[in-house]
Structures are given as C-alpha cells and as structure tokens.
Write a structure and sequence with these properties.
Elements: H1 20-43, H2 49-56, H3 59-64, H4 72-85, H5 88-99, E1 105-108, E2 124-128, E3 133-137, E4 145-146, E5 157-166, E6 169-179, E7 192-196, E8 209-213, E9 216-219, E10 229-230, E11 236-237, H6 247-277, H7 296-331, H8 338-366, H9 378-387, H10 395-414, H11 425-431, H12 443-470, H13 475-481, H14 483-510, H15 515-535, H16 537-543, H17 548-565, H18 569-575, H19 580-583, H20 594-603, H21 614-625
Parallel strand pairs: 1-5, 2-5
Antiparallel strand pairs: 2-3, 3-9, 4-8, 5-6, 7-8, 10-11
Helix pairs in contact: 4-5, 4-6, 6-7, 6-8, 6-9, 6-18, 7-8, 7-14, 7-15, 7-17, 8-9, 8-10, 8-14, 10-14, 12-13, 12-14, 12-15, 12-16, 14-15, 15-17
Domain Acyl-CoA oxidase/dehydrogenase middle: 107-216
GO biological process, one term: fatty acid beta-oxidation using acyl-CoA oxidase
InterPro entries: ACOX_C_alpha1, Acyl-CoA_ox_N, Acyl-CoA_Oxase/DH_mid-dom, Acyl-CoA_Oxase/DH_mid-dom_sf, Acyl-CoA_oxidase, Acyl-CoA_oxidase_C, AcylCo_DH-like_C, AcylCoA_DH/ox_N_sf
C-alpha cells in the first residue's frame, strides 16, 4: 500500500501508448520516486534488503515499472561487483557513494561482437608503467560494449570487463571502474562514446546502451583487485581461482531463478482467474456452458504452471542457501564446492527461464483472443521472461558448461572418488548391475528414474566423445560433435535436481503446515513430478523398464492430480497474494470483472479520444471518392 497507493507511482496513461523516449523518462521518474520511498522506509525503521529485493526482482517492482527498472543493474550488478571484486580500500571508496546513489553504476561486459564467450571480449585495458594508469580502448566496432542496463543515459560509472595487458602480455578479463559521465552535467567524459541500442521485444525502460572507449585513461587503483592484482611495476598476480572473477554472474543467476518463479506466478494467476470467469462450450448438453477451467485440457495447460512457479520458488530458496554457504566457504579460502554451485546455477538458470517463458506463452494462449491484447500483460511479462533466456549467459551455452562439469564428475565416479551431493546419483548408477532401472512410479522412484536418465545420457555422451577421438577427432572437436547430447544431459540432470529438490522443500514446508494445506502442497508436487516424467517418456523407455501399462497408470495419476487441484486452483493463485496493480491485467483482477475492465482499457486508446480520426479526411475520403 505504501507504494501502490502513492499517486506518483500510479499509471496515468498505459505505457504501450507512450513513445520510446517518454517510456524511458517515465521509468526513470518512477524509479527515483520508488527508491526515495525505500529510503523513507529505512528512516521509519523498516529497513532491510527485502525492500530493495521487492523493487528489483520482486513482483512489486514489475507492477510499478512494467517495462523494467533503469536502476536494476546498479543494485544487482554494480554494487555486488564492488563487493565481490573490490579490496576493502576500494569498497570504502566506492561502495558507500554507490549505495547512497551519489553515483549510479552499470556493469559492462557483453560487446557487440561477443557475449557469452568471455575470452573473446575485445576491449583492452593496457597498463602504462610511466603514469601508473590503465588505457581503455575499443580497437574495433565489435569491441563496443552492448546491452548493459542503465548504460545509455542513466549511469555515470561502470564496472567494465576488459582484457588486461601489462609488460606486453595479456592477463585475461579483469574488472575496472570507469567514470562515463560528468557527475554534475552528465555529459560523456573525454574518449567515451555512449548511447542507447534501441527498441526491444520488452524491458524498454531498462535503458540498454552501447559504449566505446578511445584511449580512456584511469588510475591503477580503479582496477578492482580483491582477486587478481596488478602491482605498480606492472607485475600481474593471479587470483587463487579464476572462477572467483565470475562471482557476480553466479549471484545474478541465483536471483534470476527466483524472478522466474515470480513472473510465472503472475502469468498463471491471470490465466487461472480468467479461466474461472470465462465460460465456453458444454460438457453436458443438458447443462449450461461450463467455466473454461472445467475442461481437462485447460487444467493441463495451467496447473503444471502453478506447480512450476512454486517448485521454482522453493528451489531458488534452496539454491540461495547453497550460494551463501559456498560464498562463506570462499571467504575462508575453501573453493571445493564452487564448481558444483557454478554447474547447478548454470543449468537452473537455463531451465527455469526456458520453462517460465514457455509457461507464460501457454498461459497467454489459454486466454484465447483476450490474452493477445497488450493490456492482458502477457506481452509485457513474456518480454521480461524471454530476455532472461539470453542475458547473464545464453541458455545453451550454460547447459554445456554444466555438461562439462558433469563429464568431470563422471570421471571421478568411474575412479570411485567421493562425489558432491548434486551428482551422488552417478555412483548409484555405476554400482547397478542393470543398465535399465526397474520402473517404480512412487515419488522416490520417479526421482531415481530421472537421475538414471541423466546418468545414462552422460554415460553415452562420454562413450561417444571417446569413440570420436579414436576416429581421429581432437577432444574439442569430439565434444562439439557430441554437444547436442551434452546439452540434453545437462537438461536431464537439472530436471532431476528440480524434482528431487522440490520434493525435499515441499516436505519441509508440509512439516509446519496444517494437514489440509499439506495435502494440497503434496498434490501440487505430485503433479509436477508426474508431468516431468510424462514429458521424459522417450528417455524413460530408453533407461528404465517402464511399460505401456506403467505409462497409462502414470497418465491416470497425472489426470487425478489435475482433478484434485481443480477446486483449489483459484485459492492457490490467490495465495500468491499479488495485488491487481502488480498483475496489471483486466483478465486477472481479483474481482473477476473481466469484461467491464477490458472495455475500460479499450476506451483509454488515443484513437478513442476523438470520433473521427484525421486519416479519414486526409486519406480515406479522397481514396473512397476517387474514381478507380
């Protein structure tokens, strides 16, 4: 209420009727109002990270800033980068000013010519031993930074990832703090070329920009040196682990998983409520038209999306705990579980974003023609979600990174070495005498079956790489030739993890829930597990003894779960507790007045502000009156 009832944060004109420039300016205005209110909450004693989280990655933020927040990267990447890469002295110099928004930062890594392949980045930072400065330069057009949020016209500083050169040698990608604009006039600094990249499918309030450097000099202290260091004489000191450099991206991937749960819960709330209002067709000819939600096909479109939004949320909580545990171990110099966290964060980011994007689109289509309208807010939500399939690591590349980790784990398992928790199922697979697991449709059986699928695919991928090498391919060539299998292996590993983690987290929640709520939670989980198993039937047939009668039984269990959830579906999405202003959709409003609200939205169109549009007199009338 503190935010949504503020007149300054309420939408006067729907964003889709604004120009590109007006949309950005409105986004900046709202962002500054919102963060001033966060400061006010802090002064009132209601301080905490949760206030920022709600605006940056939570549902509240998406309700207020429907096309994205131009300050998000400042909080989510610039500040964590200073903490993750800066020495205590550098944190003292930069963090306080950034936290108080005396300076606004962004994080410039992706370039016009390179994104996920970090080693291919072209921006250079060459150390000048005479002046004790770095010279940042964009040697080509493709070296221009491209995509950072808030870069174009919002930020005046950036953490820039560039290839470090000293003493004639390249020392790889390192982070540097660079001033982009004058703190008073906001004009670009000397040697800086900066601007906005243009309109996008969504997130047009984020102010994504481009950035070029022409021999821009910064002092040596502006290289963030918590991990790697460069001494005054130009000597490079390597970090204890190269993976430490990518800590900020891992943090963001953890946050993305949580965001996907929020976006999917938003889409499914709209679709379920609309499906409870909309009536279509007769199931029994003797009775009136039924609610669309009574059709089993509609339930199968929507209820798994409910389950996924809950499982993704719980798994992101699990991943968050794992992230905090591993980062605390890192501070003590323990790097043992860092590869495991990296691997699971990579594949979870890939799967949750892909499934959320697909889920939002299914929800849109489940709402028929009305779902196609911009005001339904599926378009805006889809734009936010599908972008996450690409930023902070393109999904296929992330799956292949997980697969590379799994290949190493497979070799460890073959040697009988101890395995970390997320891959311990490989030891069980290797100890089994049967290549095909005996099928068991209990929840534990489904978890084991999906793990067996992942292990079986991994075994085949490893064998195929070895066979291709024997035929003359290098390891790299053989890996590329097996990359389809490897990506699918990582996908299977992640889905097995989600089903297992979901079970553990649901049972943990049930321990403190009432028996009635626990029953609903378990039904939600069962539907998720059955749906994942049904979608993996081809693989289950390859790696388990599942039979046609087993599949029929599994299908019946899935349909029973849908029927069992039907009376609770609206109650479940209501329990997400998403205010109407955050949903931003006439289809999903709590009062169910769908048609009245749709009509009110239609009347807001600029074309409806006059009875006759000028195009009639300028073009239509002369055309209609002319003799053809």
């Amino acid at each position: 209420d503190f935010f949504l009832n503020d007149p300054e944060l309420q939408e006067k004109v729907p964003l889709h009727f604004l120009s590109h420039k007006e949309l950005y300016e409105e986004s900046v205005r709202k962002a500054t109002v919102a963060f001033r209110k966060v400061r006010k909450m802090n002064e009132m004693g209601q301080d905490g990270v949760d206030n920022y989280s709600a605006l940056l990655g939570g549902l509240l933020g998406t309700g207020i800033l429907k096309q994205g927040n131009p300050l998000t990267v400042h909080y989510v990447m610039f500040l964590p980068a200073i903490l993750g890469h800066g020495t205590p002295e550098q944190q003292a110099e930069w963090f306080g000013r950034a936290w108080n928004c005396e300076i606004i930062g962004t994080y410039a890594q992706t370039e016009l010519g390179h994104g996920t392949f970090l080693r291919g980045l072209e921006t250079t930072a060459t150390y000048d031993e005479q002046t004790k400065e770095f010279v940042l330069h964009s040697p080509t057009l493709t070296a221009y930074k491209w995509w950072p949020g808030g870069l174009a016209h919002t930020a005046n500083y950036s953490v820039v990832m560039a290839q470090l050169f000293s003493k004639g040698k390249c020392h790889g990608i390192q982070p540097f703090i660079v001033q982009l604009r004058d703190e008073e006039t906001h004009m670009p600094m000397k040697g800086i070329t900066i601007g906005e990249i243009g309109n996008k499918l969504g997130m047009n309030g984020v102010n994504n920009g481009f950035l070029g450097f022409d021999q821009v000099r910064i002092p040596r202290k502006n290289m963030l040196m918590k991990n790697a260091k460069l001494l005054e004489d130009g000597t490079f000191v390597k970090p204890p682990s190269q993976a430490l450099t990518y800590g900020t991206m891992m943090f963001v991937r953890v946050v993305i998983c949580r965001d996907m749960a929020a976006y999917l819960s938003k889409a499914v709330t709209i679709a379920v409520r609309y499906s409870a209002v909309r009536r279509q067709s007769h199931i029994n000819p003797e009775q009136p038209e039924v609610q669309v939600i009574d059709h089993l096909t509609q339930q199968y479109k929507l209820f798994p999306a409910i389950a996924k939004s809950i499982i993704f949320k719980l798994t992101s909580d699990n991943l968050w705990d794992m992230y905090n545990q591993v980062t605390s171990e890192l501070d003590k110099g323990d790097l043992e579980r860092l590869p495991e966290l990296h691997a699971i964060a990579c594949c979870l980011k890939a799967i949750t974003t892909a499934d959320a994007a697909a889920g939002v689109e299914v929800c849109r289509m489940a709402c028929g023609g009305h779902g196609y309208m911009t005001c339904s807010n599926f378009y805006g939500t889809y734009g936010m979600v599908t972008a996450a399939c690409t930023y902070e690591g393109e999904n296929t590349v992330l799956l292949l990174q997980t697969a590379r980790y799994l290949m190493k784990a497979w070799q460890q398992a073959l040697r009988g070495q101890e395995l970390v928790p997320t891959v311990q199922y490989l030891a069980r697979f290797l100890s089994s005498k049967n290549r095909r697991m005996d099928w068991d449709d209990s929840i534990g059986g489904i978890v084991r079956a999906l793990q067996t699928v992942a292990a079986g695919k991994l075994r085949l991928a490893a064998e195929h790489i070895e066979q291709r090498q024997k035929r003359g391919a290098t390891l790299e060539e053989a890996t590329n030739q097996t990359s389809i299998e490897l990506a699918r292996t990582a996908d299977a590993h992640c889905r097995a993890f989600l089903v297992q983690s979901g079970y553990e987290m649901i049972e943990k929640s049930c321990a403190t829930a009432s028996p009635e709520v626990a029953k609903v939670l378990r039904t939600i989980y069962h539907l998720y597990a059955y749906d994942e198993a049904m979608k993996a039937l081809g693989d289950l047939l390859r790696f388990t003894t599942i039979s046609e009668s087993d599949i029929n039984r599994l299908q019946a269990k899935l349909e029973d779960a849908l029927t069992e959830l039907r009376p609770n579906a609206v109650g479940i999405v209501d329990s997400f507790d998403i205010p109407d202003d955050v949903l931003g959709s006439p289809l999903g409003a709590y009062d169910g007045n769908v048609y009245e609200r749709l009509y009110e939205e239609a009347k807001k169109s600029p074309l409806n502000q006059e009875p006759v549009n000028q195009s009639f007199h300028m073009y239509l009338k002369p055309f209609m009156k002319s003799s053809l």
